[in-house]
Design a protein that fits this description.
Blueprint: E1 5-6, E2 25-31, E3 36-44, E4 50-59, H1 61-64, H2 72-94, E5 103-109, H3 113-130, E6 134-138, H4 139-151, E7 157-162, E8 167-174, E9 177-183, H5 189-199, H6 206-214, H7 239-252, H8 257-290, E10 296-300, H9 307-319, E11 323-325, H10 337-348
Parallel strand pairs: 1-4, 2-5, 5-6, 7-10, 10-11
Antiparallel strand pairs: 2-3, 3-4, 7-8, 8-9
Helix pairs in contact: 2-3, 4-10, 5-6, 5-7, 6-8, 7-8, 8-9
The structure holds 5'-O-[(R)-(carboxyoxy)(hydroxy)phosphoryl]adenosine and zinc ion (ZN).
Zinc ion binds near residues 139, 143, 163, 301 and 334.
Length: about 375
């Protein structure tokens, strides 16, 4: 493990660039794959340690509120309107100029095509105008490598990636080398949180709203299924659980605040039981695939911000003899610090992309992973 520094401050409390040392690289990262417009600057030292210098994230939720979900065209326009300003803010907070950066990284997929084009084309323009290397980053790889930035943790480790579009267990063997151990056969976990929130009349994004409501609820009042519990294959499923919440809600409607809190707490307890069981199975299979004991278990992606989930996974990891890591809450959801860091890791290995690099709305990290019956094709 390598000691990392998150935000490099001067005595006056202003961010300053880390003293230039041999082999240190500075990367500007851009994230526009869904509904967060973000830019960040990170430094990677020659010993592989990291320093997050600035990170600016602008959520677009108010643009999509009336539609109950992210509208791709609106998202792309909103990125186009503010990305220049967000990049300027990230550079200015870092005390850096475009001339200082050694590479420009942008999320090139998977995600919504319009937003990806806005981010990648902006990165290409900067790279071309400033003669800097371009790194077209896989957004999932960026989530996967975030613990390198925050905890100085190098591969190998097993990662639970839980976001709005993905629920996967990935064996992170090295930068760019991933084996998918498990995936969801229907909804992603974040999607299940969002849909459950919607049917209970809670605001979007649903994950934080369900988590908040659950804190006052009774998790045992409603009988809810624990999907896939005990199955030998390690995959996930959440669609049935979400439907069961709908049925219980209809049985007691009209819903009081207590009903909603109890349903949220019950949903979260069922999610945790299922995810823990699936991860326990996944850890065994990942160790078989690696041919060695794992030392670290990681959670990343928006849902990894859920405190109940983090506590449950910490306990599971301990039981399995593994150290548990999850990024700080602000770096669980989509951000550009993780894109900049993935870009820096690739740049340090000479893995750069041509200026005609395509956006890839679908871009699995493990393209060899066998198809799972019923599983979505988003990644
Ligand atoms: O990684 P992310 O920001 O974007 C994607 O790449 O999808 O994840 C967003 C998802 C949303 O579904 C949101 O409801 C969920 O993460 N989420 C949470 C929490 N915070 C965000 N789910 C459960 N508990 C939370 N605290
Ligand atoms: Zn994400």
């Amino acid at each position: 493990m390598i000691a990392n520094q998150l935000v490099f401050m001067s005595e006056e409390g202003k961010p300053v660039l880390p003293a230039a040392v041999d082999g240190q690289i500075l990367v500007l990262g851009i994230e526009t794959s869904c509904d967060e417009t973000a830019a960040a600057v990170v430094a990677r030292r020659a010993d592989g340690s990291a320093c997050l210098i600035s990170s600016v994230v602008r959520a677009q939720w108010e643009h999509h509120r009336d539609f109950g979900g992210v509208v791709p065209e609106i998202a792309a326009r909103a990125h186009a309107e503010c990305l220049d300003e967000i990049i300027r803010m990230a550079l200015s907070e870092a005390g850096a100029s475009l001339a200082d950066v050694d590479g420009v990284a942008a999320a090139a997929g998977p995600g919504l095509i319009g937003g990806l084009i806005v981010g990648l084309v902006s990165a290409k323009a900067i790279a071309m105008a400033r003669q800097k290397p371009l790194i077209a980053v896989n957004h999932l790889e960026a989530h996967a490598l975030t613990v390198g930035l925050t905890d100085g943790l190098p591969p190998p480790y097993l990662m639970l990636l839980v976001s709005g579009g993905h629920t996967q267990l990935l064996l992170v063997r090295d930068v760019g080398v991933y084996t998918r151990i498990a995936t969801t056969i229907d909804d992603a976990l974040g999607e299940a949180f969002d849909k459950t929130a919607k049917l209970l009349g809670l605001p979007q994004p649903g994950g934080p709203a369900v988590e908040e409501c659950a804190t006052t609820g009774n998790p045992t009042r409603f009988a809810l299924p624990r999907p896939m519990l005990g199955r030998s294959e390690p995959h996930f499923s959440f669609a049935g659980l979400k439907t069961a919440v709908r049925h219980r809600a209809h049985e007691v409607a009209p819903l009081t605040n207590t009903d909603v809190a109890d349903l949220c707490a019950g949903f979260q307890a069922a999610v945790l039981a299922s995810v823990r069981d699936r991860c326990a199975r996944g850890i065994d299979l990942a160790e078989q695939a690696l041919g060695a004991k794992l030392g670290h278990f990681v959670a990343a992606g928006g849902v990894a911000a859920n405190r109940t989930l983090r506590a449950g996974l910490t306990e599971l990891a301990k039981k399995k003899g593994l150290a548990f890591h999850a990024p700080p809450l602000a770096l669980c959801g989509d951000n550009a610090a993780m894109i900049a860091w993935a870009g820096a890791e690739r740049l340090a290995r000479g893995l750069v992309d041509p200026l005609d690099a395509p956006v890839r709305p679908r871009w699995p990290l493990d393209s060899e992973a066998p198809k799972v019956r019923g599983a979505g094709v988003k990644a």
